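Hi U.,

Before I forget, here's the chain from the pilot set. I'm dumping it here mostly so it's searchable later in email.
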Amino acid sequence: MSPARVEWVEMGRIGAPYGVKGWVHVESFTEPHEELLKYRTWSLRAPGGERAARRVVEGRTQGGGLVARLEGIDDRNAAALLRGLTVDVPRDELPEAGARQYYRVDLIGLRVRNVEGEELGVLEHFVDSRANAVMVIRGAKEHWVPATPVHIREVRLDDGVMVVDWPSELEERQ
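Structure:
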């Protein structure tokens, strides 16, 4: 059985204030990072799940990230209150994924087995590294598998299964 389809997709996180006029740093989870700015209204989600819609007034790349000014946020103090909120967008606003492309949110919760048929566990989350994203799979052991086409052999969303080229005992051989 596949994991439940989410209606909101986490696309970024609000960081520290930028300047004194209400701008904020934004960590974007899109590729490329500035794609997040194409969504003109963000749903900002607090840790408790409360949401507030904010229109993006303006935004741009700054250094290695993004900065944005949101409607109704006019000074540094107001911007500071947004720190740590997630930026969600409705799933129906996302473009269709291409062949062998998936949104991470759709892969979390899949049962993962290797090409030998051994169950490795469930994909819990992703960790971004300099080289590529890594899938954290938790079962009897925790496996960190690179999220690359070389390692991801098959994804069957309808069955809730992913097949990876990753020997279950690789960590012990090193």
